[in-house]
């Protein structure tokens, strides 16, 4: 299928999913707990059912991997896989916060090539094709091309950080980044958008809890803008793995500071636990 046609359908899915999230909020959110202790909301489940039907019908040749659906390893035999996070930031959604989104990516031969992040409460959607430009759509207007990156020096770097992630504050102290240059948020999708909108220049996490659906869409978006998105060692991230967990964390970094960031990180590896 032509990438533009695939992107067009994925935008339809993202807009519809965003509407379902808003509807679920309007009706009163129901919350349950999964076996791992994380929450799943009625919004997650409504979007899951819609996404499964929509992509199975139109992209029957592709595998499907989503946070809330039972994983089928048949996807490992497919050239193309759709990866979805129904609601990235379910805790934020439950608490009435604003750091949540719908994320959707198309991965071909292990490489994400289409990415969309939809923020339904803000009527915003960001999207990109690998090797192309990155765009923002607000309130059904025509897409606006996101501008190229501006230059940044290490002493001016702004760093993304999970609002509840105390361990990573220790990492940033080791890197010599002062507290007033740390920008907090409540979800991975929000941090990806913060990088796209120049609110941060760097995000690093040594966690082994990130899943492919947390980062695939954002990787396409940010690489289209010139960011580097790798593991913490600067190695390429892999997708559509049997176990969809990032084993070596994630590093999102502005190209101007990539070399110095990796050099500083190399002195911290033995002091930071995954």
Describe the structure.
With 274 residues, this protein is α+β, with helices and mostly antiparallel strands. The protein folds into 2 domains: 3-145, Fructose-1,6-Bisphosphatase, Chain A, domain 1, CATH 3.30.540; 154-271, D-Maltodextrin-Binding Protein, domain 2 (3-Layer(aba) Sandwich), CATH 3.40.190.80. The protein has helices at residues 3-27, 42-58, 90-95, 166-174, 188-196, 212-225, 258-266; strands spanning 31-33, 39-41, 63-66, 80-88, 101-108, 111-119, 124-129, 134-138, 144-145, 159-162, 182-185, 202-205, 228-230, 250-253. A 7-stranded mixed β-sheet has the order 3-4-5-6-7-8-9, sandwiched between helices. The protein has a 3-stranded antiparallel β-sheet with strand order 12-14-13. A two-stranded antiparallel sheet has the order 1-2. Strand 5 and strand 6 form a beta hairpin. The protein is globular. The model has no long low-confidence stretch (mean pLDDT 93).
């Amino acid at each position: 299928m032509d990438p533009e046609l695939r992107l067009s359908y994925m935008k339809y899915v993202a807009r519809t999913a965003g509407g379902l999230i808003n509807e679920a909020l309007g009706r009163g959110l129901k919350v349950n707990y999964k076996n791992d202790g994380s929450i799943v909301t009625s919004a997650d489940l409504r979007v899951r059912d819609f996404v499964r039907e929509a992509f199975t019908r139109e992209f029957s040749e592709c595998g499907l991997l989503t946070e809330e659906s039972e994983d089928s390893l048949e996807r490992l035999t497919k050239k193309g896989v759709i990866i979805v996070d129904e609601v990235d930031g379910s805790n934020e959604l439950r608490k009435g916060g604003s750091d949540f989104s719908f994320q959707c990516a198309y991965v071909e031969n292990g490489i994400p090539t289409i990415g969309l992040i939809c923020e339904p409460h803000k009527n915003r959607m960001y999207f990109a094709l690998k090797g192309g430009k990155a765009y923002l759509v607000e309130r059904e207007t025509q897409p606006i091309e996101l501008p190229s990156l501006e230059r940044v020096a290490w002493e001016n770097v702004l760093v993304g950080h999970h609002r509840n992630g105390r361990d990573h504050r220790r990492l940033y102290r080791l890197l010599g980044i002062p507290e007033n240059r740390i920008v907090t948020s409540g979800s991975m999708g929000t941090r990806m958008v913060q990088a796209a909108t120049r609110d941060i220049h760097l995000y690093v996490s040594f966690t082994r809890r990130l899943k492919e659906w947390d980062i695939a869409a954002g990787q396409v978006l940010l690489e289209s803008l010139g960011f580097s998105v790798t593991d913490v060692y600067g190695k390429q991230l892999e997708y559509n793995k049997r176990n969809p967990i990032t084993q070596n964390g994630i590093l999102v970094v502005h190209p101007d500071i990539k070399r110095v960031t990796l050099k500083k990180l190399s002195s911290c590896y033995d002091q930071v636990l995954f």
